[in-house]
Inverse folding.
């Protein structure tokens, strides 16, 4: 045991001074000749991983943990080890490997079996919530920021988030479970959790977690069997750098742009209001603009608009201004990413985006609510700093984090998201189910699909109104004059 204490001390020192490694766990011991139950145990008996286990656990387990050994090591496990130690096969296992095994076992709950099945939360299944946010939460400690995120494969995702000042874990089909911080990279499930005494051990590279190791569990059966440590790699869903996630277009965007400009919007039948697009910043110059599609900083990396401007139908625009004024009372303002969008741009988005991400772009055969001048992509900015606030995901991010009820991130990020949603809903807007930043005005069905380019807007919206830019069928009723809409609801 003196050797064990010495190794634990050295590993504890190494953990505090050695550079962080992207992957400190490895299994190399051949197990083909072992019985199934011994094959599982051998994974933690392997000398190649002993020091790594001690590195993770030695930093916070000391002499006082002897009582924990007596309380948490199952009697069946002791009997099993005594039986195995009498055999020739196990006689050669060094004592230090047994110690490493016990250290792993005492930090888990022997009554819980680790199971993996089914899918994580379907984004569409998130419960709708539009309640007014409560008191503004504080940001989490900086040391947690590199841990927050998603881990594991598509069908078995673990979300690490911050809630109410605590780091939490959310397993698939489960509840948010708070964690107790043991050390910088080691967290323990709280005593009230179904996973009490189980640990999550994070591995970092440059301050950011690259994977998380979940404690092994001892399953009660004819013999106590150790299930190997579960390693969940970090999911690379965030932008690698900057504030914009990019996707690779299916075809070159210039080719798609040429085709879209030559195409015509779908024909619509019905009675529509005459378009009355107004510029948001002319109604209130304190509304900020960051029109990504007027730059190359967008999900397709291509400039689509000739000018950084934001237009909406007058009733919708006036509602946006009212929201902006309400938010000022709480120290925030609106930052607009996009508003009216010509139809040809919607067609390029659809044709360039992979089919599995079509939920994030509008079908040009139906038209977008942006094409009708009744949708806005918006976020908040801080009036004191003038900078955008931090949300759960970046703008135009084609991941689950974009959903308006995605449970991950931090309390402050979710509070910002809910504040924006509540304010917008109070003035007749509805959030799009897959994008927290996208809001549709209540009267969007009353306006036609438009294909007016930004450089044409000033000339087009003078009497008489130029209907060549509208996709209205011949049998439709006459369109009302723009002025008739100015007082519309």
């Amino acid at each position: 045991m003196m050797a064990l204490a010495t190794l634990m001390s050295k590993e504890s020192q190494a953990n505090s001074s050695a550079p962080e490694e992207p992957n400190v766990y490895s299994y190399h011991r051949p197990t083909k000749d072992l019985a199934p139950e011994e094959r599982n145990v051998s994974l933690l008996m392997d000398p190649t991983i002993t020091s790594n286990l001690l590195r993770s656990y030695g930093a916070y387990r000391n002499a006082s943990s002897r009582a924990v050994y007596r309380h948490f090591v199952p009697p069946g496990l002791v009997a099993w080890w005594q039986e195995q130690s009498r055999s020739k096969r196990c006689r050669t296992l060094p004592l230090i490997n047994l110690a490493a095994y016990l250290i792993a076992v005492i930090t888990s709950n022997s009554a819980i079996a680790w199971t993996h099945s089914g899918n994580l939360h379907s984004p569409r299944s998130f419960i709708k919530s539009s309640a007014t946010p409560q008191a503004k939460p504080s940001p989490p400690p900086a040391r947690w920021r590199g841990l927050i995120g998603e881990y594991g494969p598509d069908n078995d995702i673990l979300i690490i988030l911050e809630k109410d000042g605590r780091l939490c874990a959310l397993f698939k089909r489960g509840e948010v479970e708070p964690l107790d911080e043991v050390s910088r990279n080691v967290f323990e499930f709280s005593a009230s959790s179904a996973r009490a005494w189980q640990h999550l051990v994070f591995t970092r590279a440059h301050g950011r977690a690259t994977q998380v190791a979940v404690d092994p569990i001892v399953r009660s059966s004819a013999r106590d069997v150790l299930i190997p440590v579960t390693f969940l790699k970090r999911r690379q869903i965030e932008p690698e750098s900057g504030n914009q996630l990019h996707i690779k277009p299916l075809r070159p965007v210039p080719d798609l742009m040429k085709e879209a400009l030559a195409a015509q919007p779908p024909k619509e039948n019905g009675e529509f209001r005459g378009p009355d697009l107004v510029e948001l910043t002319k109604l209130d110059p304190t509304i900020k603009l960051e029109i990504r599609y007027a730059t190359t900083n967008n999900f397709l990396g291509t400039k689509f608009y000739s000018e950084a401007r934001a237009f909406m139908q007058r009733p919708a625009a006036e509602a946006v201004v009212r929201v902006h004024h309400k938010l000022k009372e709480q120290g925030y303002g609106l930052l607009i990413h996009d508003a009216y969008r010509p139809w040809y741009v919607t067609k390029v988005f659809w044709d360039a985006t992979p089919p599995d991400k079509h939920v994030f772009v509008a079908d040009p055969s139906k038209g977008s609510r942006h094409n009708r001048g009744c949708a806005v992509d918006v976020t908040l900015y801080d009036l004191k700093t003038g900078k955008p606030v931090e949300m759960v995901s970046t703008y135009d991010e084609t991941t689950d984090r974009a959903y308006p009820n995605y449970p991950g991130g931090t309390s402050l990020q979710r509070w910002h998201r809910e504040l924006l949603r509540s304010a917008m809903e109070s003035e007749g807007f509805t959030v799009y189910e897959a994008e927290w930043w996208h809001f549709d005005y209540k009267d969007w069905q009353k306006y036609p699909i438009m294909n007016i380019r930004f450089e044409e807007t000033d000339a087009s919206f003078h009497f008489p109104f130029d209907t060549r830019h509208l996709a209205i069928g011949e049998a439709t009723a006459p369109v009302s004059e723009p002025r008739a809409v100015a007082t519309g609801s």
In short: The chain has three domains: 2-106, 123-233, 253-485. Residues 1-82, 88-131, 218-222, 462-489 have pLDDT under 50 and may be disordered.
